Amino acid sequence: MTRLVLAPMEGLADDVLREVLTTAGGYDWCVTEFVRVTDTVLPHAAFTRLSPELKNASRTRSGTPVRVQLLGSSPTMLAANAGHLAALNPAGIDLNFGCPTPLVNRNRGGAALLDEPELLFSIVAAVRRAVPATIPVTAKMRLGIDDTSRTLDCARALEAGGADELVVHARTKQDGYRPPARWEWIAEIRDVVKLPLIANGEVWNLTDYRDICRVTGCHDVMLGRGAVADPLLATRIRSDTDHNTAADWELIKQLITTFWDKVQAKVLPHQSPGRLKQWLGMMQRNYPQAETLYADIRQLKRAPEISAVFRHALTPTP
Questions:
Q1: Are residues 305 and 208 in the same domain?
Q2: How many Cβ atoms sit within 10 Å of the Cβ of residue 54?
Q3: H or E element in which residue 207 lies
Q4: Which of 13, 27, 118, 168 is most enclosed, with most CB atoms within 10 A?
């Protein structure tokens, strides 16, 4: 049976957006933004700040399990932090070998480690030993740094280290987020490892979902930016339908209202408009109503002004 996973998206999919998107439904679990591990064992507050769901049995309000992602390069420190995190009983611990951002990579994190399969093995093995068997340890990787010459070695190393599942974002670090994703490489990985694979990259609609499953041979897919651009993407995949209806926008209006209320409660007043514009800007890809709403608030800088627009624009249609 198909499993759908909401991707970790740094600076985008925080606990507020996770709550809203999982309320829309269709996800088996989601993964947090990364917790950066350096040379200290972080206090529990560092984990609960990024994943307040840990205080709710590691689930969103809708009941979707949340796995916490760690990023770093030291097997010893990642294992120590994973063991400390395990005391909070997360739904799972994920290891980030895919982040392509220059700041992370300059500090030997994320995709920068993909030239060192031996280190990937050591990290996963150390974390797996430090975490009770009841807590899944998973990993997410890209295809490499500049090329795919070590793709299969990295996948084998993660499996040998004891990863329970592997998410593959079908691009290299150098590719960034430029299309197309190289889905055929996930099929190559399936030929050399036995652990469950989850395909990721460039799934924006039902057609893309069907294509990534066909090309990769995977039934499990992680949804990232496509899920943000269409909050109903997971439910469209579940229902095997890919057309927008008036009822869809009515539901999305409720999601936007919830998001706006919760963002204002979480961040500083001058930060909330930017968060909302970011999401509406991405939804313009699928919803002309989002394009109109974005245009209405684009020049507004104060939350009360935006709320006034919303009182009119997001009032449920009788």
A1: no
A2: 21
A3: helix 206-216
A4: 168
Q: Is the dihedral of CA 70, 28, 86, 83 positive or negative?
A: negative
Range of the domain at 144: 4-239
Residues 276, 259 contacting (CB under 8 angstroms)? yes
Q: How confident is the model at residue 244 (pLDDT cuts 50, 70, 90)?
A: confident
- Of residues 231, 163, 241, 195, the one with CA closest to residue 6: 231
- The residues that bridge with 30 in the sheet, in sequence order, are 6, 66
Write down the pTM of the prediction.
0.95
Residue 60: name the closest of 26, 94, 29 by CA.
Answer: 29
- Residue ranges of the alpha helices (H) in 87-168? 102-106, 117-130, 151-161
Which residue type does 174 have?
Answer: Q
Question: CATH code at 293?
Answer: 1.20.225.30
Q: Same structural domain for residues 251 and 226?
A: no
- Active site positions, annotated: 99
Q: Give the DSSP H or E segment for 198.
A: strand 197-200
Pairing of strands 4-6, 221-223: parallel
Summarised one tens digit per residue, pLDDT across range 49-86 is 999 999 999 999 999 999 999 999 999 999 999 999 99
Per-residue buried b or exposed e for 155-166, using 16+ beta carbons within 10 Å of the residue's own CB: bbbbbebbbbbb
Q: Which of 214, 165, 216 is nearest to 186 (CA)?
A: 216
Helix (H, G, I), strand (E, B) or coil at 221: strand
What gap in Å lies between CA 124 and CA 187, rounded to an integer? 22
Residue 41 lies in a domain: yes
Residue 202's SS3 state is coil
pLDDT for 76-104, tens place per residue? 999 999 999 999 999 999 999 999 988 88
Nearest-5° angle of CA 271, CA 273, CA 279?
A: 110
> In angstroms, how far is the first alpha carbon of the chain from the final one?
38
